[in-house]
Specification:
alpha+beta, T-fold, 2 domains, 5 helices
Length: 262
Amino acid sequence: MTDAFLLSTASMGTVVTVHIVGGRASADRAAQHRAAERALGWFRDVERVCSRFQPTSEVSALSSRVGEPVAVSPMLFAATHFALAVAEETNGAFDPTLGSILEAAGFNHEYRSGWPVRIAPASNADVTFRDIELDAEAQTIRLERPLLLDLGAVAKGLAIDMAVKQLHDDGYENFTVDAGGDLYFAGTNAAGEPWSVGIRHPRSEGEILNRSASRAPPSALPVTTSAAPPVRTRRSNTTSSTRGLDPRPGDARASRRWRRRR
């Protein structure tokens, strides 16, 4: 059996766990603890920059500066650039400019306090990712219209990538980073076997939809899941699904272009 170490923290609306198996400092539990803390620190850093649930975050501050190029941190620029690239690739099926809509719909409660957060500016329903202009050379973001970026879908992935790089830099080959449905498996588990992950059926108790296994180092297994489990209401005793929003209201929105300066 190989030495293993687990450390968890609450971050980005979920519980994030780093599980380290062995490594060049496997006999030193303090070294494993420091490595896990450094990896988890990336989730706190990304949250401070990219969370629309924090009034002091960089992305929240950006929403108050409409119509002007705003110099932003490399982290916020990278997250926004990637989000817009995905939006372009999906023709708007993924759109990071839905912050105001999500806030108005009640998806605005800070996960630790439970208190509602109201940051979003008054925004038209037809705001789209094409209302954002990036300048890669100047590292600026310009919001053409009032909007609030929602980077939750990409920020967690960025945090996982940074945590994984940190663990590799610290000399670990066998580990997992679990961020509540978004996971990364590297190397082997404590038994020296490939990591195995099963995806549970969201509406069928005990049923596994799929099971995957990692390979030996340097191979890895990234896993991302998103489900809409049924929610039963007390009043009507009915079930409904709450996740899933198509941000494409019609062709009028598709007439604008996302402008990216070289």
